[in-house]
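The passage that follows is intended for readers who have already worked through the single-chain material. We present the inputs for a multi-component assembly, then the predicted structure in tokenized form, and finally a short commentary. You are encouraged to pause after the input and sketch how you expect the pieces to fit together before reading on.
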Amino acid sequence: MKEARLGEFEEIILLLVGILEEQAYAFKIAEEFEAQTGKSVSIGATHSTLDRLCKKGFLSSELSRPTAVRGGRRKRIYTISASGQRALTASKELRMSLWNQYPAFTKFTFQA
Amino acid sequence: MAKRLLKWFVKEALAEEVLGDLEEKFYADAEKKTTLSIKLNYWYQVLNYLRPFALRKSLAITSINYGMYKNHFKIGYRNLLSDKWHSFFNIIGLAMGMAATLLMGIWVFDELSYNKGFENYDAIAQAMQTQTFNGEVQTAVNQPMQLAPELRALYKDHFKHVVTSSFIDNELLTVGDTKVSRPGNFMEPGIAHMLSLQMISGSRDALQDPTSMLLSESTANALFGNADPMGQNVEIGSGMKAQVAGVYQDLPKNSDFANLSFIAPWQLLNTTANFEARVGWGNNWFQTFVQLADGADLTEVSSLIADVKYDNIKNEGNPRGVKTKPVIHLHPMKKWHLYSRFENGISTGGAIERVWLFGTIGIFILLLACINFMNLSTAKSVKRAKEVGIRKTIGSVKNQLIFQFLNESFLVVALAFVISLFLVLLALPFFNGLTDKTMTIPYAKPVFWLSCLLFILCTGIVAGSYPAFYLSSFNPVKVLKGTFNSGQGASNLRRALVVFQFTISVVLIIGTITIYRQIQYVKDRPLGYDKEQMLYVPINGPAVRHSFETIRNELLLSNAIKDVAASDVLVTGTFVTNSGFDWKGKDPEMSEEFNTLRATHGFGAMIDWEIKEGRDFLRDFRSDSLALIINETAARYMGLEKPVGESVKWGDMGPFKIIGVAKDMVTRSPYDQVRPTIFSLHNGNFLNFVNIKIGQEAPMGEALTHIEKVFHKHDPKSLFTYNFLDDDYARNFIDEERTGKLASFFAFLAICISCLGIFGLSAFVAEQRTKEIGVRKVLGASVMSLWKLLSKDFVFMVILSCFIAIPIGHYYMNLWIQDYSYRTELNWWIFAIATLGALAITLLTVSFQAIKAAVHNPVKSLRAE
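Having made your guess, compare it with the prediction:
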């Protein structure tokens, strides 16, 4: 059984896959990552994470139709699987519950 | 390239999408970034795919068998020890080859980095002038002094600095009682910035003041010791005075300005004698250095200024100057050292050819050593065959075996490299002496170590690849059954490689012999004058010129001194040329150029020249001050059947009368043809040397003290120096002798390495045939016939290689020797000697093993069965 936990980088990548929908392939994801976080990442690193997520069952992928932009080569489009969705929700819930128990934060939101 | 790498290591299934991604990124970036940065980024991305998930299976599982590697090393090590002689030859041969290549590499690197020490390396250039004299095109650095101001005025925007400079010359520097003679130049102030002098004190701008000069650090030390040189007065030569306004670090040794030990202000030259005669567009007495403005293109600027002299000389109304069609062009600093030869005004190479030649020889020597390694290991393969068989049956894959043998070769190469470093360390002082350089091993440079690593890698692969592939391809069944035969293929290859080795060695021998023969031939060239027992004292100032007659008389008081005469140039190098002559029957289109030598009375007799027609200058004939003597070549050059009595105009001087024809003398490079030369009487400011002939039997020491005393009396301010004429002449051979020594050094190395190789091979052959020899001996073979049996093969190979080497050697040496217009012939006996020499050495080497095997007691070799 593969370890079914999410690392931070993995989580962000997973979310980005969700955001990008049809456009979720390695290059776009890496670009979006840079745009959103301001940190740079190589395509290779993104690709290896995507690969890992596939192995954990959080993502599924298929090859798209060839496009002219990339010299007629196909690209691999990733989509979040049901277990991926679940892992994301679980992670979010965990964080929310932790945040809710954080007194300073609660106070802050009330004042706001 | 990056793409190919990626395709190689990435899983096939992934390749398409990955390449697609990278390409998309590439083109997305292409819009906003520079090509270089996106290319680099592409590489970065590719290298970032070196992750376990993406790698091919075959690549991913190598490198876990530490135990096996340990075993490889252990076996390799034991193999080295088990056959000590074999390993010894291997390693020593390789080490010698590597040392030679390393030395060569350091030398080539040094040559290529010549002048690179200057910050403005890329922007500095020297103005060259190409002139045509009677159909002969000459390119030289000499320029009229007007060139620099003209360039500054007309092409200001293209140059940062334009500097007129004198030619570097030894000048006497005097401070109080301290006198030193140092080479230096008179230059315009821009030079300090151009050469980016590192000032120890003072500023680069100091030369702006025409009474200030700059000293190099070592000169300052020599003159002032520990005292502060700044602001001190220095006398240059006789009479010129300047204040030290700056001290700069000595310039890099491997540069064209290495000797520049002082820079005096240009204006000081105005005060010297003869200066008037050097002014004018027609007189080329100086050099012009330029530094291009930022962004200026050399070729563009060069073509822009091409006619600058021609236009001026035309405006001046100087028909004789116009006829020489002067063309100015810029010669960039990066070409000064290695591309200094010009033919028909076009750069046609120069020292770069020598760099290539010796670089190639260095690589060939290494190749010879690698061949030894290959030969000896394939020869030994029979011994290793069983090992290979066993390893294969146990489950080794071919790749692992290749790896094992490469590993062994790297072990040997690494060992050899360490030894070669020691050898280089030992040989470097000797090599420096040979090449007249101060090279060191650049330990501190990472580039050096990187290239060493690369060097080891290349050598290891070249030396080890063949044995590795050959040995690993053995069929285990055959090997273990004992039906294995090491094969005709391998031994044929061995033969071919030995032939190759000896071909190179013989070519090098032929080259060495030819170079030495050429040197000897030129040395034996009859000069036409007597340079023995002659010395000369350079004239430093007017003191000597004005009282020359008195000095002469006082010198002649000594019995040791036979004769004294002064001249403007030395008879060993008549580098002053003049044009502007006119005579009856001269072709009006001819733009003539003569070597000229001006001297006082008695000069010709002193050097013992031979007057073919007419007479020598005579003291009693006052009219001889307007007389000329020409040499035979000049007579032919002028087209005069009966030259004696003809009158010649020299510019606005004359008419002169030709009173004699002297036999041709070799007054310039002994490699060249004699040039048309004109001798005249002169007793004034042009005199530069006092030539003194010492009696044959006279005690040299006594003569010298006398000469020094006389000179000191009349010219107390100057430092007395003298040189011998034959030493000067010998300098003509330095370059050739250096080439000769280097060539013989390499020929020797090549022979040594090749012999080491056949020594090892013959030992192996003898060992393999021990039983055969034993049987033959028992059946009655004599030692002689056994020796023949064992040597025959090698002798045949060497003869074959001689046949290959002779045409190659002939071709290249013919090419080399064509450069000299006075040259020896390539005689057949050179090739015969090379062949015989190679044969003799081979026989000596092989016989040692052959005779050892032949006299071996057959009982011992056969008993083992």
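Commentary: DSSP finds 31 helices and 26 strands in chain B. The mean pLDDT of chain B is 82. How closely did your sketch match?
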